[in-house]
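ARCHIVE RECORD
Type: protein–small molecule complex
Small molecule: FE2/S2 (inorganic) cluster
Source of inputs: curated submission
Record status: active
Notes field left blank by submitter.
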Amino acid sequence: MNNVKMTVNGKAVSRDVPDTTLLSEFLREDLRLTGTHVGCDTSQCGACVVHVDGRAVKSCTTLAASLDGADVTTIEGIANGGDLHPMQAAFNTHHGLQCGFCTPGMIMSGIDMVNRFQADGKDLTEEAIREELEGNICRCTGYHNIVKAIEDAAGTMADMAKAAE
Amino acid sequence: MYETKYHKAASVQDAVAALSGASEGAVLAGGQTLLPTMKQHLASPSDLVDVRGIAGMQGVTVGDGTITIGAATRHADVAGNADVKAHIPGLAALAGGIGDPAVRSMGTIGGSVANNDPAADYPAAVLGLGATVVTDRREIAADDFFEGMFSTALDDGEIITAIRFPVPTRAAYAKFPNPASRYAMVGVFVAETGGNVRVAVTGAGEDGVFRHDGMESALASDFSVASAAGATTSQEGVLNDMHASAAYRAHLVNVMAERAVSKAG
Ligand SMILES: Cc1cc2nc3c(=O)[nH]c(=O)nc-3n(C[C@H](O)[C@H](O)[C@H](O)COP(=O)(O)OP(=O)(O)OC[C@H]3O[C@@H](n4cnc5c(N)ncnc54)[C@H](O)[C@@H]3O)c2cc1C
Ligand code: FES
Ligand code: FES
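STRUCTURE (tokenized, with ligand):
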């Protein structure tokens, strides 16, 4: 057993977990944050993507014990009260989901790519979005609307970043 | 996953001690290969020794004609590092083409090199550039390090602490990714360093990464796309599996070499 202390969606949490507990299990079973989905459990599908210290990672391929002191954000932590995050709103507007199983991972990966491209001052083109989505699999939508949603949200997020300056 | 004991090492000495005290210890770096393997019950280390908290194993340092990358440096951090981009852009581009963004934000250079997957990208750069693998106890030349599929010169409990690359005159990598896994169906790293040309091929060899002698001499006499195209690639020892036949892979070796030479300029 390991005592793990993390900040999850802005709240301090502390739990005793077995050494083999995955971050995905810790979030879903210990914290009951079931928005993070487990699609493949073999590190391929990206449904389990969350942010750890500001980077997108596959929570099914990360040990909770290794994250003592980490700052974790899940799909439950991105809306501002009743206001959806621009990435969530764009998925809604562009119909970027059907069954919704891949959506939490798509949204967390989408936010991560927008943040990285904006930090590097690079243009997030449609081609770049498709390349960046390499690790996120969707069995329903055919990706077109997901790509449109991320492109749209990237614009909104850039405007918000400018407005905040 | 079978039971295991997790340790976070604060120093290389700490990690070496934890490994030697374990019945079957394993280094844990990014976990992007080891954890999936453990989940499939293909590995069951008694102890995991996490090296990511060791300050001396992180980051990039520029030396006299060399770039040294700490073994626990993540793929995304190599891809984005200004010194790597300035001195060995082909290496930065290679790191930026591994897997997907989430894999690149966890996976490390040391883990990739220690694992020596026959389709992994980094082994091609390490062998192609003639890098040196630095461990807790010695330095191993790339030519002596890779010993065949998933096999290296590392002893039990030996830890890679850094990889030291000579800065080449020109170098580049081109890969034809397997469309499903993004690992290399074939990847070719070409480098010219101090008048010496090296060509390393990953994804194609039954024994993992290898140097392509014929291509090296062709490029040494004329570093051009035409020489890369003209060199003969034997199908002997070339992988033949459900992803591609030996003939297809051997052909891809020349095509990837042409692209790498053209990128290297
Ligand atoms: C979906 C997916 C796609 C991928 N695509 C690619 C790809 O396109 N190209 C590619 O090259 N790779 C790819 N990988 C593999 C990825 O690059 C891994 O990160 C890498 O192979 C292992 O690095 P790691 O840091 O995660 O090591 P770990 O998984 O932690 O360890 C791997 C092995 O190395 C040992 N080890 C780790 N660090 C050290 C050290 N410092 N000293 C000694 N031994 C050590 C461990 O004990 C273990 O045996 C992919 C992985 C996934 C999950
Ligand atoms: S559940 Fe983690 S990648 Fe599929
Ligand atoms: S919406 Fe069903 S898997 Fe993507």
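CURATOR ANNOTATION: Chain A touches chain B through 29 residues (CB under 8 Å).
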